[in-house]
Design a protein that fits this description.
Layout lengths: L26 H15 L3 H10 L1 H5 L13 E4 L2 E4 L1 H10 L5 H8 L4 H8 L3 H9 L6 H21 L2 H9 L10 H4 L3 H15 L5
Antiparallel strand pairs: 1-2
Helix pairs in contact: 1-2, 1-5, 1-8, 8-9, 8-11
């Protein structure tokens, strides 16, 4: 049976089953989970299966079949994890299913309204797009990446996802009274929030 097509003529991506959120919410485990759901939301069945089966290191090497050639979204560097800008750009250009928002909400322990606001999509629109297996627009996909990146970096900084979530959703005086998640709605604002996390990580009080 041939794949269904978007109005744009592209084949409708199929959702790939991925494991539930990791039991141990370390920054590395969260990044690995995000990497898997990104492949699912991008409709890349082959690579998603490899992400789940082999883990990030095997996939990051770029070895394997055609499905492994796209850059990984999250890269392990020693004890740390960082977002790959090449991987993020490739994923956004390829298109992300709106279902990724629900996957992020399943991991990040903040109220869903905060996540929807950070990604720039309302509940009704998200529900409609998920029902149609439609994609986020480019701005929303970028915002989803910002949310994922901040949750990984904050977990590395504070040691647990719960502590990270408390910081991410709490209004901060250095951010004009906005929470880090709400404030980081563009790349320049994100850079400021990331610099605050770096300061905290290396002994600063922010």
């Amino acid at each position: 049976m041939p794949p269904q097509l978007h109005s744009s003529g592209k084949a409708t991506p199929k959702r790939v089953p991925v494991p539930g959120p990791p039991a141990a919410m370390t920054a590395r485990n969260i990044a690995d989970y995000y990497a898997a759901i990104l492949e699912s939301a991008g409709g890349n069945r082959s690579k998603a299966a490899q992400v789940i089966k082999l883990g990030r290191r095997a996939v990051s090497s770029g070895r394997g079949d055609e499905g492994l050639r796209r850059p990984s979204a999250f890269v392990h560097e020693g004890e740390s994890v960082r977002l790959s800008y090449d991987g993020a750009a490739a994923a956004i250009h390829a298109g992300l299913l709106a279902s990724i928002v629900a996957n992020i909400a399943a991991v990040l322990p903040v109220d869903k309204a905060t996540i929807l606001r950070a990604i720039g999509i309302d509940k009704a629109t998200l529900s409609r797009r998920m029902h149609k297996r439609a994609e986020l627009n480019a701005a929303q996909a970028e915002a989803a990446f910002r949310t994922m990146e901040l949750s990984v970096l904050a977990t590395e900084t504070f040691g647990t996802l719960e502590k990270a979530a408390l910081w991410l959703k709490k209004p901060h005086p250095l951010l004009e009274g906005a929470s880090p998640l709400d404030y980081a709605n563009n790349q320049y604002a994100l850079a400021k929030v990331k610099s605050m996390l770096t300061a905290i990580r290396y002994g600063g009080v922010v």
